[in-house]
Amino acid sequence: MTDKNFKEPYFIPANSSEFLANGETWIENNQRFRQSERFRFFRCAMDYIVENYLPGSYFEFGVHRARTFTMVMGLDDFYASNMGETAGGLTPKPGGGFMDKYFAFDSFEGWPQISDVTSHPHYSPGGAKTDSDEFIELLTAYGQSTERVELIEGFYDRSLTESLANKYVQEKVKASLITVDCNLYESYKSVFAWVDQFMQPGTVLYLDDYNTFRAQPNQGPKRAWNEYKEISDWKFEPFLPVGHWGFSFIVC
Ligand SMILES: C[S@@+](CC[C@H](N)C(=O)[O-])C[C@H]1O[C@@H](n2cnc3c(N)ncnc32)[C@H](O)[C@@H]1O
User: Fold this and answer.
1) What is the C-alpha separation between 172 and 24, in angstroms, rounded?
2) Which among 29, 60, 97, 98 is placed 20 to 30 Å from 46, CA to CA?
3) What domain count does the chain have?
4) Domain range holding 150?
5) 216 in a domain, yes or no?
6) Residue 208 Cα, ligand 1 centroid: separation in angstroms?
């Protein structure tokens, strides 16, 4: 059966009312586009994790409005609830999802106080703040169980300690998926130095700010990434790009 509406130019032109109706304001319209690109990526990442029977936990650095966190929790639960026998080597958990735990690392006070942010005045200390109560409220409002969610509160240069790492090592914590979405060189640097020990072959590492600073290799998060890659024992296989901003890798 042919669809009469499916005709040249075979896409919805950006100046048509149908396109503009996809979000009433420009911000809504563009957020819908950006968040749907992220959602698509996380679906691919979860699909890959399930297909490869990769056990482990979710680590997110920079959780703010619980958007990407909710994408991952919801998709994990979707796969665990619907795949049944075909999920093979992964076992659904009693509260939903395959992941052991969901770790949320954030200051819950917004951006840190750092010296080198002159070119990005919107990163002023305290900006992008969602406190921990509100974060939990958002997750609950989005229908997620918070039973296996663990909040690690504080600025990374102080919260990502050796003793916290030792505790997780003892608990045999490993990451199947890591999201780094904390925008700043200093924040990314602290995260990479600490999270390295929780990677395993196959872990998906998503860097949401890969192409900020016009994608220049010696600036911002990409600078932290390039410095970290030099010293890490892991190798990183390119995985998927996300919109114009993000990039993901598979740990090898
Ligand atoms: C862009 S937001 C994250 C958006 C989030 N993934 C979402 O989907 O809603 C960045 C977050 O990183 C956090 N952040 C940035 N640098 C940090 C640091 N050094 N220590 C702790 N949190 C930090 C901020 O508090 C903020 O909540």
Assistant:
1) 47
2) 29
3) 1
4) 35-251
5) yes
6) 11
pLDDT at site 115 = 65
For residue 157, the model assigns a pLDDT of 96
Instruction: Name every residue whose Cβ is closer than 8 Å to that of residue 66 and which is 6 or more positions away in sequence.
Output: 130, 135, 138, 139, 142
| Residue owning tokens 């900020």 | 212
pLDDT score for 212: 93
The CB of 158 under 6 Å from ligand 1? The reply is no
Which residues of the chain carry a pLDDT beneath 50?
none
Q: 12 lies in a domain?
A: no
* List of residues 6+ apart from 61 with CB closer than 8 A: 105, 106, 156, 178, 179, 180, 181, 182, 187, 191, 195
CATH number at residue 216: 3.40.50.150
pLDDT number for residue 16: 86
Q: Which is the closest atom of ligand 1 to the Cα of 61?
A: 12
Q: Please tell me if the CB atom of residue 65 comes closer than 6 angstroms to any atom of ligand 1.
A: yes
Q: What is the largest CA-CA distance in the chain?
A: 63
Q: What is the pLDDT of residue 21?
A: 79
Q: What is the pLDDT of residue 117?
A: 56
